[in-house]
Amino acid sequence: MFFHAWNNYLLHGYPHDELAPISCKGQKVHGNIFITLIDAADTLAIMGEWSEFARTITIIERIRNFDIDTNVSLFETNIRILGGLLSAHVIAERKLKGVYSGKLLPLAEDLGKRLMWAFTPASGIPYGTVNLRYGVPIGETPVVCTACALSLSLEFGYLSHLTNDSTYMQAAKRAARVIWSKRSSYDLLGNHIDSLTQEWTATASGIAGAMDSAFEYFLKTYLVFHDPFWYQLFIDSYTAVERHVNYNGWHILVNMQSGTVNSPTFSSLQAFWAGLQVLAGDVFRATGMMERMSQLVSVLPFLPELVNVNYWSFTESRDWPQRPEHIESMLAVYQATKDPGMIEAGFELMKRMFDFTRTECGFAGIRNVENLELQDRQESFFLSETLKYLYLLFDPDNEFNGPEWVYTTEAHPLPVLPNLSRQSRDQFPIRDPPLSDKDPLDEYQWQREKIKWSREQCDAVEYRVVKNLYSLAEPDGKGTRWIRDWGYFKKPVLDR
């Protein structure tokens, strides 16, 4: 499947951003900055296609710089292009020694400098659009989505690490600090903010589009760089979401100031949340969310963009644009539970993609999940995320499935950096974890004590393993809490 999509992109789509798989031609979508070429490169490496990976890097190296008079999305360019360049560079340095010239890093740095123009000096919050030659376009709206401003820290942080220039991470961290300071008394964020006035322009709060990857980057940035600032942001925001946005297992939109229901809708973009919960150690909630999503794909071929969970009706958004989030969470839950049902579910979705979306020139998105009408677009993330996560699901022993890799929101793997604070502590004896003093009135205390100990004594990777281990256990330490009754379903009661 991957090579059918990839080869047809190179034949009919390149050098444009994407392939139109029905009309068999390229199309400009994101400023014609080689989106699919760069976004999908590291998928070749993960699949072990080293010759094609090396050839693709050679093609990318022909790009001298990004001095292009085109307006681009800060968010999309960062996660697809900058993330793709950094990941391909790191992998090539490890796997193509003696072949790779190292030219992707200067190219990434050139792009990073141009993306820095989006930041407003006064507030620290970036604009959502930037011209790669001239900076922020004249008359550009200062309103930016929350995820757009808060999903920079992985790529900017790694660029800082590789270039020894802290400017990029400092900018991402400042934006996060400023926006988090504008949270409500419920610790909820809105979904759009004015980068000049620092005022919220949209106060609906949830985990779907315009907010989703912000939470993801809070945790993953901590796991990669070990800065407790990001960990605290994640813990506080995650707690607030589960307390105020989760209604009987369905995450909907609420008013950030009051916590009251704004819109009882489920978005397919929310499907990433279960995978994030696994990464955070909350496997029990993650499996519950997977159960609910299984209800939708048992009656529909794919998750639609939006569903009203109060009346079980579709909104006007009935499309499936080849999104990866559902499969991403399948992979995470499988890694935590080793339940073969996740592989079976992944295979079923792959078969549906092949049967319903394959065209002569690639794979198309679905315009309407009810009648399977196709749309003439093959998204770059279909190659960089959807098929990549499927491949990793079916290849559990793949080296890129290891805990030393953290995936960006565009599925670009970045290595976890050494925890220097932990290394400096290793010269001192490490105390034993608490095993006693269990409060009989609190059956979970022993778990919390061990998790607290592991956070204090272990590096990010070890802490994640320990937390996952104990979140899988029953209070008495026996068995696992993996919901197997896929037929169970409870309609949410939205009365708050």
TrEMBL record:
Cellular localisation: Endoplasmic reticulum
Protein name in UniProt: alpha-1,2-Mannosidase
Stretches the record annotates as Disordered: 418-440
GO cellular component, one term: endoplasmic reticulum quality control compartment
InterPro entries (alphabetical): 6hp_glycosidase-like_sf, EDEM1/2/3, Glyco_hydro_47, Seven-hairpin_glycosidases
Annotated catalytic residues: E76, D212, E305, E325
Similarity section: Belongs to the glycosyl hydrolase 47 family.
Coiled coil: none
GO biological process, one term: ERAD pathway
UniProt enzyme class: hydrolase
Cofactor(s) in the UniProt record: Ca(2+)
EC number assigned by the record: 3.2.1.-
Pfam families: Glyco_hydro_47
Residues annotated as binding Ca(2+): T409
Keywords, ordered alphabetically: Calcium, Endoplasmic reticulum, Glycoprotein, Glycosidase, Hydrolase, Metal-binding
Biased composition (Basic and acidic residues): 423-440
GO terms, molecular function: calcium ion binding; mannosyl-oligosaccharide 1,2-alpha-mannosidase activity
